[in-house]
Amino acid sequence: MNTRRLTRTLGCALISIGLCAATAALADNQLSTIKVEASVISKKVIETSASGIPTEEVSVTRWVGYEDLDLKTHAGATELKRRVEESARLACKQLDELYPLEQPEAPTCERAAISAAQEQVDKALAAAESGAKEE
What we know:
alpha+beta
């Protein structure tokens, strides 16, 4: 990877981290949200050594708001699931753009991100069904 591309990639990663932090702060203060996180294992050769190639896990986090939905209805629950699926798709697409050489299979990445968020979705739906506000 040339220096220019590495600088651009690192710049995009830092912007993404800043946007995620700002979104997280907004989400904590204003909306009921679900965290959707996609990740990829990135292998980067820093130098050739006997110890092998260092690896790092890189993730993209997106927040799904649902305060505007009535989760007691089928339509509300369906829309929440659709939003989580769309966020997983976009997070995996962003990883693919940031780390094109480490491309996970998109369907596998999306399924893993949706699966990881499913407990939060279930809690939100159960809280709505019981009439309690999820904390």
